[in-house]
Write a structure and sequence with these properties.
A: 216 residues; alpha/beta; Alpha-Beta Plaits; two-stranded antiparallel sheet; B: 378 residues; mainly alpha; two-stranded antiparallel ribbon; 16 helices; elongated
């Protein structure tokens, strides 16, 4: 049964508070019970609280599937890129290393790539994915386009990403400022981008001052 | 017709012809070929054509072609050939004979697959030589009540017809049917009760193979039941029914899920590729500097992507190609690129070149194992 067309998945890493609720909820998903497919990283833990939760973006032309020598990754008619087919996956690691978003995980012992399938057991019957149903800050959100526009008037969704010369369009949307003069997110342009909400030189000086004061 | 299709048809015709010749030679010019089994023979010849065609097409896909070539290259690379030869039997036993990787996927899944695998192997080793006339049993002159096994026209061992050995050998297909039916029952139960399996399975890909295997096994058992306990009741009908199920299974081999039987051994090549990769030069992420896989792997992926028409080159950046960026930095870049668009409202930032790390290193939450962790660097 396909994912109902009206519902869309939106991610907004800026809203992530790093609570790990999505990680725990993801482990409850029936298609990969006990293993979380959410990739949650601190961007620069020593200097910033910024975190990024990443689910599979479900590319229109999935690089992971194209580079798979076993033809083990299929995209269903509703645009969901499924996890590796268990009879076919030969654990070559190509998909893990080719995904431009860094999503798939390799379960070496089981000779199997595992990745987010947008909780297909739930979304295919009209329910929200586990992660989006528990995310307290709305960094991972599932609903209709009308709802997200009403709830977040300062943002708008885009789903085109640029990696060097390569443009990738996805099923999952990313929220950007409503007035941002872009129609795509240029990922490789951020190669040397610093974190947000960081402790910069001034904050470092303040912190060192606090340490000094405590020491005194 | 494309060059790929022509090549695949050529290989398929060659494999089919080789088998046909072997049938004629092995049955001593069809002297020992059982004409009643001619339907099975032609179904097998069709299956060999279809399987070879699909396999040849599969091998011509850019990633498969590259892995196929590189797999053999690394296996026979002078520095590693002894290492590979010594490891080879162990990998065959672990992956093919014991299915250890399926044990890691789930105990019931392993039990079902292992029973079906060995049931099919035993059945195949008995059925095909019998059908092709490569194997038959003859009486032994001067020794009434004894049978001699003849393989490819050459006499081999003899044994008494009423011995335990004879009972076990002549009922080999019965034992294999028990294994297959047991495995099918476990698999069917899992597919009917597991919510995750139910969400992604399809009738053609997942249920049909189980139904076909069950039909072949149960009709075969009914033949034995008919001549053993029912004085041959409905034997002709059951024989035709069994032939229909087997021939359907053979004709379907190249198209459905059963094709994984022929794809699966590729994982042995992947094992050697990975082992050699670990022992050779690492690739270092051109953003964070950490090693995350082998240099050979990154270069092969760049070549594969180029052949597929992807253009992940990054002009004007020292990284050169996005494939040189580790998966964890790629995820960080996604957030940083989004944050960049918000700078107007949240202010600029100072410390350059942030280093990402796992937010969820706990059991089951972070990497799934050492290799997975290495992909994202320690």
């Amino acid at each position: 049964m396909p994912v109902p067309e009206r519902n869309e998945f939106f991610i907004d890493p800026n809203r992530c508070i790093g609570c790990n609720a999505c990680v725990s909820a993801c482990m409850e998903c029936d298609t990969h019970r006990g293993y979380s497919m959410i990739q949650l990283d601190f961007i620069d833990r020593a200097r910033s609280p910024q975190t990024v939760p990443v689910v599979c973006m479900h590319c229109d032309s999935p690089t992971c599937a194209e580079v798979c020598p076993a033809d083990a990754i299929k995209r269903t008619g509703d645009g969901v890129v499924q996890t590796a087919s268990k009879p076919r996956c030969i654990a070559c690691n190509n998909c893990v290393l080719a995904c431009p978003f860094g999503i798939p995980k390799m379960h070496s012992e089981a000779n199997l790539m595992m990745k987010c399938d947008m909780c297909y057991d739930r979304t295919s019957v009209g329910k929200k994915p586990m992660c989006a149903s528990v995310c307290p800050s709305g960094a991972l959100w599932f609903g209709t386009m009308e709802e997200i526009r009403r709830l977040r008037p300062r943002s708008r969704p885009v789903r085109t990403f640029r990696f060097g010369n390569q443009t990738i369009t996805t099923k999952v949307w990313m929220m950007v400022p409503v007035d941002a003069p872009v129609d795509r997110v240029d990922v490789t342009d951020a190669m040397h981008e610093p974190t947000v909400g960081r402790s910069d030189a001034a904050a470092d000086a303040l912190l060192s001052g606090l340490w000094t004061a405590e020491g005194a | 017709m494309s060059a790929e299709v022509r090549r695949a048809i050529g290989w398929a015709l060659l494999a089919t012809t080789v088998l046909a010749v072997l049938i004629v030679v092995g049955s001593r010019s069809l002297d020992h070929f059982d004409a009643a089994l001619v339907g099975y023979t032609f179904a097998t010849l069709f299956a060999v054509f279809g399987i070879t065609y699909r396999y040849a097409m599969w091998l011509q896909r850019p990633p498969t072609a590259l892995y196929w070539r590189r797999g053999w290259q690394v296996f026979f690379r002078r520095a590693f050939v002894w290492h590979n030869l010594l490891r080879w039997p162990r990998h065959v036993i672990d992956d093919i004979a014991l299915n250890r990787f399926i044990w890691a996927r789930g105990r019931l899944r392993w039990l079902a697959h292992w029973l079906i695998l060995w049931g099919c192997i035993v059945a195949g080793l008995i059925t095909f030589p019998l059908v092709f006339g490569w194997l038959y049993f003859d009486t032994v002159a001067g020794r009434p009540g004894w049978y001699r096994t003849v393989v490819f026209g050459f006499p081999t061992i003899s044994f008494p017809a009423d011995s335990l050995f004879a009972f076990l050998v002549f009922h080999g297909l019965v034992w294999s049917a028990f294994l297959v039916i047991g495995g099918v029952m476990v698999a069917m139960r899992r597919r009917m009760r597991d919510g995750g399996a139910a969400a992604v399975q399809s009738f053609a890909q997942d249920m049909m193979p189980l139904i076909v295997l069950f039909a072949i096994s149960i009709t075969g058992l009914l033949l034995t039941a008919s001549y053993t306990w029912m004085e041959g009741y409905a034997y002709q009908f059951l024989a035709i029914l069994h032939a229909v199920t087997v021939i359907f299974g053979l004709l379907w081999l190249p198209f459905g899920k059963f094709f994984h039987i022929f794809q699966r051994p590729a994982q042995l090549g992947v094992r050697f590729y990975k082992e050699v990769g670990v022992l050779s030069d690492p690739a270092r992420c051109r953003r964070c500097g950490h090693a995350f896989t082998s240099r050979m792997k990154v270069e092969d992926l760049i070549e594969t992507e180029r052949r597929l028409g992807y253009a992940y080159e990054i002009p004007g950046n020292a990284a050169g190609h996005y494939q040189w960026i580790c998966p964890r930095c790629r995820r960080a870049l996604l957030a940083l690129a989004q944050g960049r668009l918000w700078h107007g409202s949240r202010g600029a930032a100072a410390p350059p070149h942030p280093m990402p790390e796992f937010g969820n290193p706990g059991m089951g939450e972070g990497p799934l194992g050492a290799e997975d962790a290495a992909n994202f660097h320690p």
